[in-house]
Amino acid sequence: MKLIFERSVPGRHSDLLPVCDVPAAPADYAPRTRAPRLPELAEVQVDRHFTELAGETRGVNGGFYPLGSCTMKYNPAVNERLAALPGFTDIHPLQPADTVQGALELMKTEEKYLCEITGMDAMTLQPAAGAHGEFTGLLLIKAYHRSRGDQARTKIIVPDSAHGTNPASAAMAGFEVVNIASDANGYVDLDALRAAVGPDTAGLMLTNPNTVGLFDPHIEEITRIVHEAGGLNYYDGANLNAVMGIARPGDMGFDVMHLNLHKTFSTPHGGGGPGSGPCGCKAFLADFLPGLRVGDSPEGLVRQTALQTIGNMRSFAGNFLVIVKAYAYLLSIGREGVPVTAANAVLNANYMMNRLKDLYPMAYDTVCMHEFVMTLEQMKHQIDVSAMDIAKALLDHGIHPPTMYFPLIVHEALMVEPTETESKETLDEAIEVFRRIHEEALRDPEAIRMSPRTTRIQRPDEVKAARKPAVTYDFGA
Predict the structure, then answer these.
(1) Is the alpha carbon torsion for 335, 338, 344, 346 positive or negative?
(2) pTM (2 decimals)?
(3) 242 versus 76: which is more confidently predicted?
(4) Which CATH number belongs to the domain containing residue 365 in this structure?
(5) Range(s) of the domain holding residue 197
């Protein structure tokens, strides 16, 4: 389809602006050297352009979206309507506290709910995304060790089944990353962990369930090993959707963690945000929390700063309207709905995995949590059909591809997360598509390698797209 600038015709317009009711800027006030370059179109053209764009967008509202480790689930529209209430949208973070008591009460209550779900004692809602929450938690760990005069703890241990942001966040926080391998079952290798910890260990970053969709049965032993070495345990909450309301990270021995409101708590995810990655911690770390948090006073709720705060991680309260959406979600499902959500996510993943494993080998053939990982390594060697080929073929059937080639510890990996919001009928349809594609791959592998064949854009040159992306428009052309 054409870009909106390619549709532009000089002199076309559709503006119906009222007469300006404020004084015009002085004639000599000219911060611009030229007028902004804007497309010129009639209203009907603008409407058609964005309608066509919407038709090209693939989202969970358009079909099955099994993107592993991302929890791309249905987001109830009521959350959006509640976040759009004027009492939330028409306020300003610099207003006096006595004029925004409702917003402050919402944040305080949400912190309480999230602490109860996670087993943490305190929470900041300020971080704007999951990795931002990771970075915040690592700064809390660093502040804690420094407050005790322990400058030697400079290393963060990260298992190879961790999310890719974990080592990046640790490095950004100034730590040295120590990578440890998984054992043959996909769990943390306890001997490797014991060998890695020491007086220079600041902490461990762990995702549980991990990136291959497994809950580590040795989780309490893992956190104990790190604690005995003097380190702290960080929980990556990206996969909390599988255990929320059933198992709490704080009860497993974790000291600090982040959550992804834009994954677990049903606020829109993808397309660049906005996200929200609250960071929770145990009481001994609460004095280091960032930002202005909600506290009580004789005059009502007020904004407070922690005694030894690491400083602001973002402006004001973070992405407040995302926080409102998550609050609405929790109110709608209630205390009883939280564990039901997790149980259904695990049920759906195991159902789909068991219906496919006779054709698609599983990286770890055991009970999974919310997601499972297939390995197409054998198919790649035998008929030269890769995980990428299968993923592309799914597009011809209206299914968004699952995560490809991740985690890195699984060769030719496809990671599938059906989430709890998909019905058995949808799962059965998707299972049938996977099985049909497998059959076609054996019968005509070249056809699968040419997929997708029915989409507007066929398979692009992946290398060229990565190394020479066309991200600008040549107005002179």
Answers:
(1) negative
(2) 0.91
(3) 242
(4) 3.90.1150.10
(5) 78-332
